[in-house]
């Protein structure tokens, strides 16, 4: 079995009208055994920038620590927050540094850039960026998520509808994946506020 | 050293939805081998009896052999009993036929749809060696993982473990079910390279069956 599937995960991000949403499941498992049901895979970089790290949990946490470190250095030197595009390049560079012994993570980056333009992107474990205008998915439930998002997504959704759509897509998908689920975690980010919600889901 | 490899996956997706008095069975018509498309118009659906339709994906050789085998057995049944086989009977026959080759299986993933003896829609879903279950809806094949969460979301079938047993048929009207099938295929075609070209839909109800074809993406 792949090391990417060792802990199980599902991460998804969607773009709405001047907003975005990023969501993940809450399961941490060791292969088929569930260890925790409050695991955090979506991390805040600053008020308008979030990263979700699917894949091996230990690498997700290590990578997050290194990213926070690099972002703080950037803030000190530049006296401003990083743009999502810049941050995506930083993640990509950090991952490619380990080209032949990679972090076993597939990141999903979502943020609001200049003029609150939403930005989402995903990449593979060695930093090949994949920019998208609609939605990005990663984790063990990625195939289910592709199907669900492809059916449910539509462009220019308002924050409330975006929340409903991403939640339905996440919950439907993780219910068909053995390695992810056990609750969900959704962030909806608009220029003025951040809504953070925990979803109750099937616990099986 | 060269080795005999009797199996190949020719891709494709099959879906069936059962309603109160109808059943929708659908499959795409693409036939692939690796990254090549062998045919854009190859049916996966076999009409085995009046109220019994089988859709199968997997290895086309095995699928054809299996469908012919079942059609032949159905004909013998018709001659012996002077009536067409019912859908639940065909379901058991298919299970036995698959399990008969337990140690050299048919590489075929089947969805059987039709009407039961009460005229109610029924869907039977299988693994390659004959394990089967009666459900309200099902998807099999290369696009199944993309379609199943959407069908769950729209149709939410009750758990088969519930007591007393609940009815698994979907609450949708016949035309809504056909529209849902078209939607899930259009979505799966966007992401699954083995699904596409054309969608063949067979609807069975009390007034017989009818077949329609719609176009899907060809890339």
UniProtKB/TrEMBL annotation, chain A:
UniProt-listed SUPFAM superfamilies: N-terminal nucleophile aminohydrolases (Ntn hydrolases)
Keyword tags: Cytoplasm, Nucleus, Proteasome
Pfam families: Proteasome
Cellular compartments annotated: Cytoplasm; Nucleus
InterPro entries: Ntn_hydrolases_N, Proteasome_beta_3, Proteasome_bsu_CS, Proteasome_sua/b, Proteasome_suB-type
Domain of life: Eukaryota
A biological process from GO: proteasome-mediated ubiquitin-dependent protein catabolic process
GO cellular component: cytoplasm; nucleus; proteasome core complex, beta-subunit complex
Assembly and binders: Component of the proteasome complex. The 26S proteasome consists of a 20S proteasome core and two 19S regulatory subunits. The 20S proteasome core is composed of 28 subunits that are arranged in four stacked rings, resulting in a barrel-shaped structure. The two end rings are each formed by seven alpha subunits, and the two central rings are each formed by seven beta subunits. The catalytic chamber with the active sites is on the inside of the barrel.
Job description of the protein: Component of the proteasome, a multicatalytic proteinase complex which is characterized by its ability to cleave peptides with Arg, Phe, Tyr, Leu, and Glu adjacent to the leaving group at neutral or slightly basic pH. The proteasome has an ATP-dependent proteolytic activity. Non-catalytic component of the proteasome, a multicatalytic proteinase complex which is characterized by its ability to cleave peptides with Arg, Phe, Tyr, Leu, and Glu adjacent to the leaving group at neutral or slightly basic pH. The proteasome has an ATP-dependent proteolytic activity.
Family as reported in the entry's similarity comment: Belongs to the peptidase T1B family.
Name the record gives this protein: Proteasome subunit beta
Upper lineage: Eukaryota, Viridiplantae, Streptophyta, Embryophyta, Tracheophyta
Gene assigned in the entry: LOC102709375
From TrEMBL, chain B:
Main location: cytoplasm
UniProt cross-references to CDD domains, sorted A to Z: proteasome_beta_type_1 (cd03757)
The keyword Nucleus is assigned to this record: yes
InterPro entries listed in its UniProt record: Ntn_hydrolases_N (IPR029055), Proteasome_bsu_CS (IPR016050), Proteasome_sua/b (IPR001353), Proteasome_suB-type (IPR023333)
Entry-linked Pfam families: Proteasome (PF00227)
Annotated GO biological process: proteolysis involved in protein catabolic process
Keywords, in A-Z order: Cytoplasm, Nucleus, Proteasome
One GO CC term, this protein: proteasome core complex
Cellular compartments annotated: Cytoplasm; Nucleus
Similarity annotation: Belongs to the peptidase T1B family.
PANTHER family reported in the protein's UniProt record: METALLOPROTEASE TLDD (PTHR32194), PROTEASOME SUBUNIT BETA TYPE-1 (PTHR32194:SF2)
Subunit (UniProt): The 26S proteasome consists of a 20S proteasome core and two 19S regulatory subunits. The 20S proteasome core is composed of 28 subunits that are arranged in four stacked rings, resulting in a barrel-shaped structure. The two end rings are each formed by seven alpha subunits, and the two central rings are each formed by seven beta subunits. The catalytic chamber with the active sites is on the inside of the barrel.
Function, in words: Component of the proteasome, a multicatalytic proteinase complex which is characterized by its ability to cleave peptides with Arg, Phe, Tyr, Leu, and Glu adjacent to the leaving group at neutral or slightly basic pH. The proteasome has an ATP-dependent proteolytic activity. Non-catalytic component of the proteasome, a multicatalytic proteinase complex which is characterized by its ability to cleave peptides with Arg, Phe, Tyr, Leu, and Glu adjacent to the leaving group at neutral or slightly basic pH. The proteasome has an ATP-dependent proteolytic activity.
Protein name: Proteasome subunit beta
Organism: Oryza brachyantha (malo sina)
